[in-house]
Amino acid sequence: MSAARHAVLAGALCLAAVPAVADMAATEALRDAVTEDGVMTHLRSFQRIAEENGGNRAAGRPGHEQSADHVAAMLEEAGYAVRFEEFEFPFFEENAPPVLTAPGIAIERDLLRTLANSGSGDVTAPAVPPSGSPLACEASDFQGFTRGAVALVQRGTCTFQTKVGHAAAAGAKGVVIYNEGTEGRTGAFRGQLGDPAPVPVVGVPADYGARLREARPEIRLAVDARTGTRSSRNVLADGPEGTTGKTVLVGAHLDGVPEGPGINDNGSGSAVVLETALRMAGLGEGGLGGGEPPANRVRFAFWGAEEVGLVGSRHHLQSLTEEERGRLAAVLNFDMLGSPNPGRLIYDGPAAIARVFRDYFASIGLEAGSTPMRGGSDHAPFARAGIPTGGLYTGAGEIKSEESAARFGGTAGQPYDPCYHQACDDLTNIDATVLHQMADAAAHAVLTLARDPEAGKDREPS
Ligand SMILES: [Zn+2]
Fold first, then answer.
1. Range of the domain at 291
2. Catalytic residue among 65, 180, 285, 306
3. Cα 340 to ligand 1 centre (Å)
4. Residue 362's CB: how many other CB atoms inside 10 A?
5. Is residue 87 part of a domain?
6. Distances in Å between the alpha carbon of 13 and those of 3, 285, 361?
7. How many angstroms separate the alpha carbon of residue 300 from the centre of ligand 1?
8. Residue 457 falls inside a structural domain
9. pLDDT per position as a tens digit, 123-180
10. What pTM does this model have?
């Protein structure tokens, strides 16, 4: 019966006129087992882990390490073959806010920013502009520069790295970069050096730079930071191999930003993936607990270091051979599923995967929209490699439109998640109802794709 049903559905995929209906009965037991309380229990664990580890679950820090151990232990207990996949990622962390003091010239604390990958140090020296161009893009701009001074240079034309390289080579003990002063480039700014710098480097607004350039006072410049690489890890949990030799890869990033506990971003997606994996095992689905393996193996992934540049998911993709990539029938990504001012959004990816979600929401009469597949989460490396990819999303810092509020409720003119990447992204920053709706949709899609021997066969649009 199952094979025949799939054949009919596969045939219908190319005929837009034929309304597809989700096979709801086939996933009912799993959806019943995936409960709001089950998902919220995982979120409470993530909140507690953050509280016990300095308030965050960021990559390379104990809150993420403990989160990884926590999910790995539960998955192993449920019967999955669990492994950690280690990798390195570039690391920069400030131990304290930067300091810049100059007699008679006050600067507001939050207008002063350390450039990422700045060196550390506490220097008291005169602030001196280069003798040549203030942009400091050429080594010759520093002719006659007083060794041991702090270089005062203008943003623009060349990279921060180039300016800092020339300044340090000329003997500067620190670098202050002031904004260009052109339209839109006058205030405080963030910047990143490509390589770790040997001296402290901060950015300041244009008008502050102008005053320093005029007065050339003796200043104190201090940065207290750590740079280098750290290791982190993905958690991978495999069910047994099915009949097709293919795999459905179901992932969520388990790390957060250093600013907060990361409960919506992305405790929510992690909790949904974990709950789906545990309940599937409990029901004997996915080939565990004495059940038959589905057509496609299911692999659950809890990516590390997403917030510092999708490092974990990229690493996993790179570790796969061409042949292994070819055996990925589908990659699902769940990143932010419980936003407090939510949309119900489906990744606008390959038709076959998006349709599984769309048909599901249509079948239960819930409004669902679509979101373009941008590069900002762990689906992106796989999508770029031509692997069929999909997922769900309830919104981040974007402002909800009138149209979106009319469709999904909530407040227009406000962000989907006002606590995005902030300390307040805690347990109170979750809409538990929408999170449960998303969990059911995810569970339905995972099981539907796992059982579909045709999944991933339509890599070209039909
Ligand atoms: Zn995220």
1. 2-80+239-451
2. 306
3. 15
4. 16
5. no
6. 16, 26, 17
7. 17
8. no
9. 999 999 999 999 999 999 999 999 999 999 999 999 999 999 999 999 999 999 999 9
10. 0.78
